[in-house]
Inverse folding.
């Protein structure tokens, strides 16, 4: 058994602009200190992410990513615990990449790392938590040879 299982699902109508292998590697990088874990990433259209954002966050607008940490008790998990689901809107990421003039692969890696950290319990509810989460994001992105996103990006990652 490999230690990490990263399942990729898509209802998005176009091919993803980054490779699935890269996506899986980004998630696995964040999980590197866990003995084993499973995560599902679902790529969806703007309507679906807007509906989910409205239903679960009471925000009737699209977002780039939503994280749904698992609520399965540890006692019912197997040797590879399920951490949760990430729902990602490729169209939003592509818009952000163009509008903010970001390197496509670096932006995708940043958002997927951000979401994976949410599955591990990290938040940006206050200044201290935000700083901790951003420091981890910068560390993982540096391991991938990507620049500090907070010197490039000025948008809210919610």
């Amino acid at each position: 058994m490999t230690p990490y299982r990263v399942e990729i699902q898509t209802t998005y109508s176009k091919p993803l602009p980054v490779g699935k292998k890269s996506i899986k590697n980004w998630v696995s990088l964040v999980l590197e200190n866990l003995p084993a874990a499973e995560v599902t990433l679902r790529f969806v259209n703007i309507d679906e992410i807007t509906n989910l954002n409205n239903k679960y966050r009471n925000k009737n607008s699209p977002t780039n990513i939503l994280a749904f940490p698992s609520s399965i008790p540890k006692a019912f998990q197997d040797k590879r615990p399920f951490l949760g689901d990430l729902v990602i809107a490729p169209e939003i990421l592509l818009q952000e990449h163009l509008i903010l003039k970001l390197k496509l692969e670096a932006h995708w890696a940043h958002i997927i790392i951000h979401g994976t950290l949410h599955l591990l319990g990290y938040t940006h509810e206050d200044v201290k938590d935000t700083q901790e989460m951003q420091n981890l994001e910068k560390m993982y992105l540096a391991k991938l040879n990507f620049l500090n996103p907070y010197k490039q990006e000025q948008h809210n990652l919610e």
Summary: The two ends are 34 Å apart (CA to CA). The mean pLDDT is 90.
